[in-house]
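Good morning,

Attaching, inline, the backbone tokens for the sequence recovery test we're adding to the shared suite. The designed sequence is right after.
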């Protein structure tokens, strides 16, 4: 393996590890990512670390400021509104492509996931199950662009989905669970129109709930004074 390809492989590995850490909530929006810390943690040189940061910048997960550093991208309420409106239109389309290809065994798994989400002990468990449910429900679609685009939108809004989950659990709102059960029923019938309608409302509800809590978009990471510009 040449030095260039070795750096590329290391950069991809570091990007995967950092992406997982961001999505799991280890780094909050606005948290600074220091190259030297990342290099030490990954046992790599600065070259693949910089490549990893560029990869995650291209995915919208990091914001790089020239001669300053890298921060986990923090969305404004307007940013989140825009991303969720895009999701409202794209994800139902992706689901329409996918539903006819879902097997009975896959649909049974979605039913198990829906029940497990209702009994999830904490937010992180719910998020893991919810991600498997929704991204799994799109797995039957064969697309050149749409699947990757939806995954990128999911990743960019992960932190705010976490915030929404805390809100609906605290308020005892069961509508999310009801939606999951309705989706499973639509999958069993092969009713793509009904599945599309339910999913649109499901995503819209999250968007509207987040709009009720603008304070979620002004939080600073604990212990940081952060010069990162908000993403626009």
């Amino acid at each position: 393996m040449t030095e260039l390809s070795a750096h590329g492989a290391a950069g991809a590995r570091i990007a995967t590890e950092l992406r997982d850490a961001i999505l799991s909530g280890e780094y909050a929006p606005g948290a600074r990512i220091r190259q030297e810390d990342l290099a030490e943690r990954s046992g790599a040189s600065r070259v693949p670390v910089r490549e990893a940061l560029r990869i995650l910048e291209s995915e919208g997960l990091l914001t790089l400021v020239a001669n300053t550093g890298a921060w986990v991208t923090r969305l404004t309420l307007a940013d989140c509104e825009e991303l969720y409106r895009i999701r409202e239109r794209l994800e139902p389309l992706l689901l329409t492509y996918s539903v006819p290809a879902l097997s009975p065994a896959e649909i049974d798994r979605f039913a198990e996931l829906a029940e497990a989400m209702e009994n999830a002990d904490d937010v992180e468990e719910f998020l893991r199950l919810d991600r498997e449910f929704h991204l799994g429900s799109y797995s039957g679609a064969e697309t050149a662009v749409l699947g990757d685009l939806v995954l990128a939108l999911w990743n960019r809004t992960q932190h705010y989905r976490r915030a929404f989950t805390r809100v609906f659990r605290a308020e005892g709102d069961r509508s999310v669970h009801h939606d999951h059960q309705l989706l499973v029923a639509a999958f069993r019938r092969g009713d793509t129109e009904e599945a599309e309608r339910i999913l649109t409302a499901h995503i819209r509800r999250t968007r509207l709930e987040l709009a009720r809590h603008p304070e979620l978009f002004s939080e600073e990471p604990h212990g940081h004074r952060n010069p990162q510009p908000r993403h626009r």
